[in-house]
Amino acid sequence: MNRRRLTVLAIFGITLICQLCAAQEITVAAAADLQSAMQDVAGRFERETGKKVKVIFGSSGNFFQQIQNGAPLDMLFSANLDYPKKLEAAGLIENGSYYQYAKGKIVVWVPNDSKINLNSGLRAVIDPNVKKIAIANPLHAPYGQAAVSAMQKEGIYDKAKDKFVVGENISQTASFVLSGSADIGVVALSLALSPNMKDKGRYKEIPTDEYPPIEQACVILNSSKNQEIAQQFLSYFKSPAVADLLVGYGFDVSRRTNN
Prior knowledge:
Number of helices: 10
Shape: globular
Largest sheet: 5 strands, mixed
Helix content: 40-55%
Number of strands: 10
Strand order of the largest sheet: 2-1-3-10-4
């Protein structure tokens, strides 16, 4: 009898601990351009607070659809303002949680051993040696939309479009060029500066006046089961230290505020 009671108590204790651990964790959906930066931020937050941040990276548009379908997420960090504003209009976010945190940039990128000359900037995608061009899906990925806009601005879209290899998000797009599945890619500057890419290739920034601003914002979802931790993480993300970290990954934080 005593042994059975001890077993029941042990199971109850383990269950309680698991529940407490889950209560100390939030799940964040983040645009793929934040892959390295967000890992740094989440790691620092966890070390300083003991609260865990589980981050899922992907396309902002896909996350938007998932949230509308009830995905169990606490926060969204979007690579554009449109999706967070639509969630706000639909009454799906916590009041006052909308926060514009940075602006992204695009670059044209090739591996170190590529013979493609990047001196012409984006026009390098129509180099005769280019057979495949990696871009993010412009139907739902803000970086793909920016890539198309820049090509249209330079008058090269029609020459390039049949060579596109389309990634579901900007991280997959970068992986296409890294793996050799594409000869050249239009990727986020933040990924070109990430540990996974910075020593493996060359890049040229695309002038920001050639594409709509890739302004980015985050929100806390009102379906979150851990509102307190989500608010703590949002406050942490607004800190000057995180702003400096984002600048190191090539983000523009000039329109960022601390409130």
